[in-house]
Amino acid sequence: MRQHVLDWLADNVPESRISHILRVEQMAVTLAQQHGLDEAKAAQAGLMHDLAKYFKPQRLLEMAQKEGLAIDPVDEANPHLLHADVSAIVARNVFGVVDEEILAAIANHTLGRPGMSAISCVVFLSDSLEPGRGDTPELNTLRQTSQHHLHQAVWMTCDYTLQHLMEKRRLIHPRAIATRNWFLQSAQHSFTHPSPEPVSASHLRP
């Protein structure tokens, strides 16, 4: 399956984008390991997250409409924002992916989604924070946070992205704001009401 996807990508996206995709795949696996998640699911979603990245705007709109997806006015103004949701359609229709968690992680990697799964969080963060995105103090802080607190890292990464969009005077999708707000509240709640940690041998090490 992986080689099949790589062959398809070689015909449909530039080589520079494939390099990004492979870095996302690797970071998704690493984050999945660190958080005790399914590494195979994270890898597959990471590898497939940008299948529709270079589809023409009209094709993205038509595929989203045919699928019955909700299309916001911001999507109509910038159809490229639909490439994540459409990539999930391609993963299902072209590669036969039926795992809903993988499909959701692909669909959610750009705008996120309130309450999205941990695998979706991992792919969302890997897309934004993979090493090729830069080596700034802000990005490195986000990377460190992602290794320990997925929900906190999601809202902090949303803030980072939203700030960039505002500086560029770009439209902001309401789903991105909803994602940011949901994960901010979730992270605040977890810090206010931390879950009791089970006692294990690892806690007894100096």
> How confident overall, as mean pLDDT?
92
CATH superfamily annotation: Hypothetical protein af1432
Compressed to H and E, one letter per element, the order equals: HHHHHHHHHHH
Q: Under the CATH scheme, which architecture would be assigned? A: Orthogonal Bundle
Report the count of strand segments: 0
Highest CATH level, the class: Mainly Alpha
Descriptors:
single chain; 206 residues; mainly alpha; Hypothetical protein af1432; 11 helices; 0% strand; globular
What does this structure look like?
By secondary structure, the protein is mostly helical. It has a single domain (2-192), classed as Hypothetical protein af1432 (Orthogonal Bundle). The chain has helices at residues 2-12, 15-34, 39-48, 57-67, 73-77, 83-95, 100-107, 118-129, 137-146, 150-167, 174-192. α7 packs parallel to α8 and α8 packs across α10 (150-167). The longest helix is centred in the first third of the chain and has 20 residues, at 15-34. The protein is globular, with a radius of gyration of 17 Å.
